[in-house]
Amino acid sequence: MKYGKDDYVVVEVEGKTHFGLAYAKGKLLKEDGMETHDQQTIEFKSSEMLANLGKTPKIGGKVYGQTIIIYLDDLAVGWPIKVDIFREIDDREKRCLIKAFKKAKEILEKHDAFGFASCLSKIQVKPNVSRMQGAYHSKTGQEGFEDILLLTPTDLTNVDELVYYILHESSHGVWFRQLPRDYRARWSSSFNKRNDINRYGETELQELADIVVEITKTGVRFKDMMKELKSENPDEHDAFKEVIAYVKKVHHIDTEEFESLALNKPDKFKELWPVVTDNPMFKIDVTEYAMKNVKEFFAESFSYFLLGRKLPKDVVKGCKATVKSLVKTYE
């Protein structure tokens, strides 16, 4: 496959796929790490090239498993480090980003919740390739803290939304770097109080197993059965879903094999069936996303608190206590 100097290419060398800039014959500068000038050089042969994307590849797509994201510029926003930009943005979007970061910093500093920022090694704005609007990665390397705050919103002109996204991801930084362990335990307790476990007992489960076997005999597939149960009997749907997950985890039998057993060897199918299942029934009084796990519960709650949004009384109390307990600086 042909390529020229400064073409962006995807290569496979020693079983690993790499994306980057072909800056010389047989030499690729990996795009990953470009913003910190510590990128890796890969030597390759023409026969190891998988794709030539040219000098201006379309950003955001995927080629041979490699997400095509290119470092374009950096932007000073008033934080300890600059923001690395991996997508095309115009002057208006730059102004909105700067305004949002400065506003978020003011809010965080007001509540002594900006100490985590000293642990940041990168702040990045990348194209949106999923439903996620951002992420926070906490990491400690040989040279110290290497946290990354990532933003991937579709719209970079809505300042209020940007402030919320920044505060949400910053709240993860607060959790990892400023929140004492005993307060993490308090938040875990608050999260778990919102989970009312719905237990399906042995008798109910055995009845469900009998029903599944009988329905399978009529030619109905598991996926269609799940759809029907979801609309007609949500509790049975959740229990059946947990059974399938249990069998896959404990017995290493996937859904297709489990379905085959129900049809051809129902006795063996029932032997694998668990005697009890527990299904979480979360009380959603912050946001639905907050119920994903305790870290998201904290991030949603704390960012809402910082923005003055409505929250349950116990969550507000927890946020106020959290502010007083925060480690102010992290060194």
Describe the structure.
The protein is α+β, with helices and mostly antiparallel strands and 331 residues long. It has 3 domains: 7-67, no CATH class; 73-192 and 288-325; 198-279. It is built from 10 helices and 16 strands. It has a 5-stranded antiparallel β-sheet with strand order 4-3-2-1-5, with no helix packed on it. A 5-stranded mixed β-sheet has the order 8-9-10-14-11, with helices on one face. Helix 1 crosses helix 2, helix 5 (222-232) packs antiparallel against helix 6 and helix 7 (255-264) packs across helix 8 (266-272). It is flat. The model has no long low-confidence stretch (mean pLDDT 89).
Tag the structure with descriptive keywords.
331 residues; alpha+beta; 3 domains; 5-stranded antiparallel β-sheet; 5-stranded mixed β-sheet
